């Protein structure tokens, strides 16, 4: 940068250098870009867990197989809870775009309840498996299963905590631009979890019951 350009950029006032350009110098939509980068890093985590499960899926070590321990009817109900929560979140986004605070709060609350129902059934499944002796220590198959499904469950738990926090922020401050950005970021996160779960349901449960 030339000396003339630098002179145009700053001025001297009482012996202090001060930039002529005021205000926020952060890049536009920097938060959304950062969140996309986070989602890409999460993709790598789940890719590693899927790869680990793919290697250990048939390592039963004399323990139970997927056909013996998976309850597809329960998992199908759980899957419907999560997929429905994605739809209700879409309704919340439509209400937010129409600047309807009450509608946004209502559909976000429904989404949270469906997410909690999903998490509750998943915890019940884990409890049942441990009760019958199918623990992570039993075999490589169950170790990989608990790691993959448990990591997804932790993400859903984090999403519910985030959603509840967002409900309080919306209730207090309304549909300000910062809150709209947060709702949009959580929307990307929630739909990302749905996509991962479709992979889990297909690759782990459906293929797991095959002979």
Poorly predicted regions are 1-11
Radius of gyration: 24 Å
Order of helices and strands: HEEHHHHHH
* Overall helicity: over 70%
The overall pLDDT, averaged over residues, is 90
Q: What is the overall silhouette? A: elongated
**What is the rounded distance between the termini?**
69 Å
Number of strands: 2
Strand composition percent: under 5%
Helix count? 7
Q: Strand count, sense and closure of the main sheet? A: 2 strands, antiparallel
Largest beta sheet: strand ordering: 1-2
Q: Assign the structural class, choosing from mainly alpha, mainly beta, alpha/beta, alpha+beta, or little secondary structure.
A: mainly alpha
Transmembrane segments: 35-57, 69-92, 104-124, 144-168, 189-210
Family: Belongs to the cytochrome c oxidase subunit 3 family.
Pfam family, one: COX3
Protein name: Cytochrome bo(3) ubiquinol oxidase subunit 3
What does this structure look like?
This protein is mostly helical. It is built from 7 helices and 2 strands. It has helices at residues 3-9, 30-56, 66-69, 72-97, 101-131, 140-173, 177-208, and strands at 10-13, 16-19. Strands 1-2 form a two-stranded antiparallel ribbon. Helix 2 packs antiparallel against helix 6 (140-173) and helix 4 (72-97) runs antiparallel to helix 7.
